[in-house]
Amino acid sequence: MRIKIPYGADFVEVELPEGTEKLSNIQAVRPEPVKDLQSTVRSALSAPLGSPPLAELVHPSSRVVIAFDDLTVNSHGPVRGIVIKALLEELKKSGGKQENLTLICANALHRKFRPEELAKVIGGDLVEAFGPRLICHDAEDPDALVYLGKTPGGYDVEINRLVAESDLTIYVNAEHNRGFSGGWKSVCVGLSTYRSIRHHHTPDGMSMSIKNNRMHKMLDEMGELVESKIKGKIFKVDTILANPLEVAAIFAGSVWETRKKVLEMLAGLFSDRRGLSTRKFDVLLYGVPDWSPYAIHSFTNPLLTLVSSGLGYLAGTVQALGEPGCSVIMVTPCPNRWDTVHHPSYPDVWENVLSNTLDPYEIQATYADRYATHQGYIEKYRNGYAFHPVHAIMATYPLKRLDHIGRVFVAGAKDDEVVRHVGFTPAKDVEEALRMAGEAHGGDFRLAYVEQPVPHVKLTL
After folding, report:
1. Contacts of residue 93, Cβ cutoff 8 Å, sequence gap at least 6
2. pLDDT at 95 (0 to 100)
3. pLDDT digits (tens, 9 = 90+) for 127-156
4. Residue 335 CA to chain centroid, in angstroms?
5. Beta 281-287 vs 322-331: how paired, if at all?
6. Cα-only R_g, the chain
């Protein structure tokens, strides 16, 4: 089998041994894009699921907030702006005044975005029209937050004050990453704080499952508390993409009903990872593209490349089809570079946490609260377009997969010491990595090549 493997921003061509099985971590079915996005949006708004129409949810003096997914979401077409403009038209029918309406980017613990960056996804005209009424969520502004209490399961719920005090909150979801996003995650993460997020963003908590998603069970419990405590209503507009630039479907209505429809559609678009093969493998090989959702308008770093992407987003197939103690071969140049403006806590965590332990449970117990309250980094989050300091800690949690994976070989890295820093083994190229894997598992080891998605969006600083 001769294949081209993603290698950073490029590809490398490799001859793989006879008997190598090819698996796919790529969406199995790509739906067709809608022909008329504006008409699709209007149709969804005219027949909302599990909710009265927008005109019945507001009156002329209603305070309304429209929140939308931030730029880390891999949706780079016009859907956010088109939906927001359609919502403004609907709200105007009820006599709503624009001065009573706020737009908010739901960036959670991600960095805030500059007006010119937001203009790329909602349109410069909306940025100009809303001016100071277009804001980014600040998870560290005590005046902008409301604590609603604990759920029956003991989960703290703290959200943006605008959601708690407005008559109507409309959330514009721009994409679904398998079962990871959408639902109550939009509000209870995107417009929340570390106090809430720490309950499910754990080594065991995060899940991309479409069915029986453990994270969303927790988020649903949080959502029930939100609905019982706030005075207003929450209305969702959910998007399924055909590709990062085009829309396949739009659903509008209640959080519960739109989530239900989304999951029904997603179940037909993704293969069950455990069903991709009838056997399990000793070695799984894949490339790590030079991309991360957390590096938009920036660039990747070793923690994002090797752990967040390499063991996190890209390793679900390994967990499903790798034998316990299996080896992973990642192919990446993994340059030793750090964006200290947007990711200031990342090199700190790399040097001062991962040099002490690679145990994600120990990292969570020992370091999470320490970084979450680091005032210097919090100041950069609030006023310097930096990721919240605890985000770098959460990026280490995919190290949990080392409970299942015995060895990680990194082929083609430019700096061997970067690879060794997280306990991985450097290899000059794929051929050398395969030789080392053969020494570990025997010459007749079962090898799978995992085809990974390659985003077609440039990361720029």
Report:
1. 55
2. 80
3. 999 999 999 999 999 999 999 999 999 999
4. 23
5. parallel
6. 22
- 3-state SS record for 217-252: HHHHHHHHHHHHHCCCEEEEEEEEEEECCEEEEEEE
Q: Which of 162, 111, 109 lies closest to 383 in space, CA to CA? A: 111
pLDDT digits (tens, 9 = 90+) for 361-417: 999 999 999 999 999 999 999 999 999 999 999 999 999 999 999 999 999 999 999
CB atoms within 10 A of CB 145: 21
Contacts of 278 (CB under 8 A, 6+ apart): none
pLDDT tens digits, one per residue of 86-115: 999 999 988 878 889 999 999 999 999 999
Strand 21-24 versus strand 447-451 pairing type: parallel
Residue type, 70: D
Q: Which region holds residue 344: left if phi is over 0, alpha if psi is between -120 and 50, else beta?
A: alpha
| Residue 444, amino acid | D
Terminus-to-terminus CA distance in the chain, angstroms? 37
pLDDT digits (tens, 9 = 90+) for 439-456: 999 989 999 999 998 876
What proportion of the chain, given as a percentage, has pLDDT over 90?
A: 89
- Contact status, residue 283 vs residue 447, Cβ threshold 8 Å: yes
Q: Which residues contact 57 (CB under 8 A, 6 or more apart)?
A: 51, 167, 168, 233, 235
Task: Report how far Cα 185 is from the mean position of its chain's Cα atoms.
Answer: 11
**Do the beta carbons of residue 210 and residue 267 sit within 8 Å?**
yes
Burial class (CB in 10 A: 0-12, 13-18, 19+), 383: exposed
The partner residues of 3 in beta bridges, in order of sequence, read 14
pTM summary value: 0.95
